[in-house]
Amino acid sequence: MKAVVFEDFGGPEVLHVAExxxxxxxxxxxxxxxxxxGVNPIDHKIRSGAMRPNLPPxxxxxxxxxxxxxxxxxxxxxxxxxxxxAAFGWTRGxxxxxxxxxxxFAHMPAELSFEDAVALPVAGxxxxxxxxxxxxxxGETLLVHGAAGAVxxxxxxxxxxxxxxxxxxxxxxxxxxxxxxGGIPTLYGDxxxxxxRALAPSGVDAVFDVAGRGALPESIELRGGTTERxxxxxxxxxxxxxxxxxxxxxxGASVASPELLAELAQRVVRGELKTTIAATYPLxxxxxxxxxxxxxxxxxxxxxxxx
Length: 307
What we know:
By secondary structure, this protein is of the alpha/beta class.
């Protein structure tokens, strides 16, 4: 099968399409003929070598950890889907390829497109995990830094669904977009504290830093000087320096499950959750897709289409 691989760490140019062996599913896995694969910031961080020595476990490596497609082989213990079904979820061994293994997955509702489906696993799990860590409740005020990206899009909507008042920072061009998600938009950058205080005179109860653009000191100030109920998924150095919780979704922290996938999918089908596709790239243009991802300015999800 064709797959995007990298044999050494470096810039996007180390990615290239190659012929690799078709994987066989383990007892609890399925193999899908990939239709769409998600592009996430973790992909270029792994490819650059920023995640060494833990990730990837070996080279060459196929990027991507979420995909959607048609099931073509099932493990001996799989009963939830069968050959021919549409399925989506988290991959084992990469997603930028023609055939991928899904390790945690769910059946795709017929009303859900492959593009919408692949936008759910990583961004949906991340948003749900952090909202649980923050223990966001109805009537509280949640501040989301980077509200227009893939994770921010879900964080705003899921926060609003919990009954919270959500303030979302975004660029000038994304203010209306954040508002369309149910959030209260404001600009990031200089003057952030004053702008947020004007919108929330009683203060903010929790802060979700999606963007990782140096807003943790302002977040602490807005929380009245405490680091409690502030979580970042992007600013590891800042979290260590300031004592803010960093959530990377590693073993023991992830809330990934077939049940979560099914719930997110049904919310989309019912019109309760909106997905936004920023751009799609064919498998042959994975270099361009990761370059796009590295800018960090896209509204919604970047996707690779395979077949």
